[in-house]
Amino acid sequence: MEPPSASPRAGRGPWQELLLAVSLLAFWNPPTTAQVTVESVPPNAAEGKDALLRVLNLPGDTASLTWFKGETVLPTHKILLYVIDTKITTPGPAYSGRETIYPNGSLLFQNITLNDTGSYILQIINQKFETALVRGQLQVFQPVSQPLLTASNTTVTKDDSVVLTCSSNNTGVSIQWFFNGQILTLTDRMKLSQDNSTLTIDPVRKEDAGKYQCEVSNPVSSNKSDPVRLDVEDDSTEQSSGLPPGAIAGIVIGVVAGVAVIAALVYLQYFRKTGGASDLRDVTEHKPSASNHTHTFQIEEVAYSSLNFNVQEPKKSTSASSSPAATETVYSEVQKK
Ligand SMILES: *[C@@H]1O[C@H](CO)[C@@H](O)[C@H](O)[C@H]1NC(C)=O
Ligand SMILES: *[C@@H]1O[C@H](CO)[C@@H](O)[C@H](O)[C@H]1NC(C)=O
Ligand SMILES: *[C@@H]1O[C@H](CO)[C@@H](O)[C@H](O)[C@H]1NC(C)=O
Ligand SMILES: *[C@@H]1O[C@H](CO)[C@@H](O)[C@H](O)[C@H]1NC(C)=O
Ligand SMILES: *[C@@H]1O[C@H](CO)[C@@H](O)[C@H](O)[C@H]1NC(C)=O
Ligand SMILES: *[C@@H]1O[C@H](CO)[C@@H](O)[C@H](O)[C@H]1NC(C)=O
Ligand SMILES: *[C@@H]1O[C@H](CO)[C@@H](O)[C@H](O)[C@H]1NC(C)=O
Question: Which of 153, 184, 202, 245 is deepest in the core (most CB within 10 A)?
């Protein structure tokens, strides 16, 4: 039942000096037992917690057990030696004080550190001084700290783009995005970077406004960022909600100034042309000084000035990205009686 080719007799020499080739499992297989294996419990250990390298199917005729740190069986890599008969445990150079060996071969690590990550070798010597080597592996992860979520801009205008960046102090984390507390559903306007650390929304829409969070996780923990609120302003927000007082004042001043300039021009034109047939000659501001001139005809002038300030919402126009600039129209109407 056991593959004979996989069961070479192990060397009987001094086990301390034995160098390992790669991936050795059990060298010798007692005929009545299954293969010896080592598993990590839990498979992914969290820094500061305990972890066990558990030995399964330890042969009944085991005489001594020795754990080594690393890939090779070297005296300097020895952690602990346990002799079954005497129940005596002897620490080696690689013993940190946090390891415990049990009679069933399992090795307990307390307060595990990142440095404990790596390969371990258990050397089993039986009562016939036959040696078996079994390899185990520990994977230790640090609990992840809180990631920091930043936005290129938290108040954007519709159709702008925005980049959200999730930064983590931890390596080897995977990143998950949340929108208003729910896992973010990507739309075709959203793109994640290869490692999921940046989210680009282009173009931004009104419905993208809300609370964003990122969550980093590794096999032992996860941690969510503080939320970042994204505001999306409508293109026409300014117009529909009324212009700021400053803008209104500016426009009024501009319009008044424009009318004044036109009036001044018209006035000048009137005095330049003496008898002119131009339509403009009749146009002037209400001015008593006009009568001082030597014009023979008498005119009564009435000047109408009608301003039409008209703001158009781009929303109503078909062009999506029309300029939001206000359109002003000034009609100057002059009538002669
Ligand atoms: C070996 O003993 C330890 C401590 O009693 C125990 O936690 C572990 O489960 C045992 N391993 C096996 C394979 O029974
Ligand atoms: C665990 O180990 C760290 C250093 O690696 C030490 O600061 C801490 O006090 C230890 N905790 C316990 C409970 O032994
Ligand atoms: C980590 O382990 C190596 C040997 O594997 C040792 O040289 C080093 O000092 C350890 N570092 C810490 C911080 O314990
Ligand atoms: C998240 O990380 C912070 C430190 O950055 C830590 O204080 C907090 O306990 C962690 N939360 C979780 C759920 O691990
Ligand atoms: C954020 O976006 C708004 C609207 O597009 C823009 O007016 C503002 O200048 C931007 N702020 C920064 C810091 O880029
Ligand atoms: C991130 O790492 C830096 C040093 O690399 C450290 O000063 C800082 O406290 C860490 N932040 C968190 C949240 O763990
Ligand atoms: C990125 O996130 C998606 C789900 O949003 C996930 O399926 C994928 O595995 C993640 N990729 C990485 C490298 O974390």
Answer: 184
Structural domain that includes position 45: 4-141
Looking at ligand 6, which residue's alpha carbon is closest to its atom 14? 145
Q: What is the pLDDT of residues 59-68, one digit of tens each?
A: 999 999 999 9
Environment class of residue 283 by beta-carbon count within 10 Å: exposed (0-12), middle (13-18) or buried (19+)?
Answer: buried
Q: Are residues 249 and 213 part of one domain?
A: no
Nearest C-alpha to atom 8 of ligand 6 is from which residue? Answer: 169
Specify the number of domains making up the chain: 3
Strands across the sheet with 37-41, in order?
A: 37-41, 51-56, 107-109, 99-101
What is the rounded distance in angstroms from the CA atom of residue 57 to the CA atom of residue 333? Answer: 106
Q: What stretch of H or E contains 260?
A: helix 245-272
Running DSSP on this structure, what letter comes out for residue 73?
-
Residue after which a domain boundary falls, among 233, 257, 275:
233
Of the candidates 200, 6, 38, the one whose C-alpha atom is nearest the C-alpha of residue 124 is 38
Going by the DSSP 8-state scheme, the letter that residue 213 receives in this structure is E
Q: pLDDT digits over 37-90, tens only? A: 999 999 999 999 999 999 999 999 999 999 999 999 999 999 999 999 999 999
What does the block give as tokens for 69? 């740190």
The two structure tokens encoding residue 195: 């490692």
Task: Write down the pTM of the prediction.
Answer: 0.61
- Give the ligand at the shortest distance from the Cα of 146: 4
CA distance 255 to 329: 9
User: Which ligand has its closest atom nearest to the C-alpha of 167?
Assistant: 6
Task: Retrieve residue 97's tokens.
Answer: 């004080």
DSSP assignment letter at 29: -
Residue nearest to atom 4 of ligand 1 (CA): 102
φ, ψ of residue 150 in degrees (nearest 5): -130, 150
Q: Which residues form the pocket of ligand 4, taking CB atoms under 6 Å from any ligand atom?
A: 143, 145-146, 221, 223
